[in-house]
Amino acid sequence: MKIVFIIDQVYLHGGIERVLSIKANYLAMNENNDVHIITTEQKDKESCYFFEDTIAFYDLNVNYNRRKSYFHPVNLKKVPGHIKRLKSKIKKINPEVVVVCSHSTDTYFIPFINKKIPKVKEFHYSKSIELVHRENPRNLQKKYFLKFADFVERKYDKLVVLNKDEVGYYKSNNTTVIPNPLTFYPKTISALSNKVVIAAGRIAHVKGYDLLIDIWSIFFQKNKDWQLHIYGEGEPDYVQMLKNKIKGYGLQEVVVLKGSTDKIQEKMLASSIFAMSSHNECFPLVLLEAQACGLPIVSFDCPNGPRNIINEENGILIPIYNNVVFADQLQILIDDDERLKEMGKKARENAAKYKLDEVMNLWEKMFTEIKTK
Description:
- The protein has 373 residues and is of the alpha/beta class.
- It contains 13 helices and 13 strands.
- The two termini are 15 Å apart.
- The relative contact order is 0.12.
């Protein structure tokens, strides 16, 4: 099968990019598949993840201004050229299916390019963030944009969402649930003996790292010898705000912004708990990775991803924004070594459900279904 994946870039560390590399490599290992990846702004940079040599890459060199909305005039004027180049490339490749991975401008015009080719749109964020605009549409521009988005989504053959809770947010009946695949399943697990709590992901406001630092300032009062390691890179202004907050609390020696890493498995295996403080998630791959390493998880019960991965046996869900309870539960967990290790064992067992073969079987089944429809 000839498959095209469309994404903005693959040179920055991120969940979407990592998942694409895993899926594309899996498909490319089958000699019956011909895998292509089209980017809009790769900028001649190397991929930050490994891709099989047989995968063909093409960059359209559109280069949107990432500091501005895709609907800002400086970016909108690039759209006609983007459409023209993408249409030409798809015609030349002549794929049997097209998959749009990232939520960029491609999302809104792909369904109308060569309508005979089946098209799939992946959603890696929670649509819960749209509820306030849908229920109280005071902003007419936003109201009509969401109606337009609903119209476009109906034109896809399939919308892939990451958990069952997300299905209800969509106005169309073309959704299917396929979770992210586990990227690794190490032979060994963490000994849970190091006094380190780890967090990882894109450094952005939505991830709530500022809240996690607030939580640590509470936890630190009784636990001077524990450290919080945060891995990732992202928005410079937000990173600086985190640094200022760490300094303001006097936590420079125990809360460390580690930057990005391509050895997250190694870092997790050297930690004892994974913490997540996001405002919203959809199906955070990083939680599965933490579980595969045998880490118990303490996370805000944000919409909607964590609750689809964590249960009372393998982690702790905290009422969202309740920093005191979060700090208290961390304390209770580190004080109970038996419970900590039992949770780690159950976490490992849960992660096994998302091994690559099982998830990719769902993708291949869907491709066959839409191709023969």
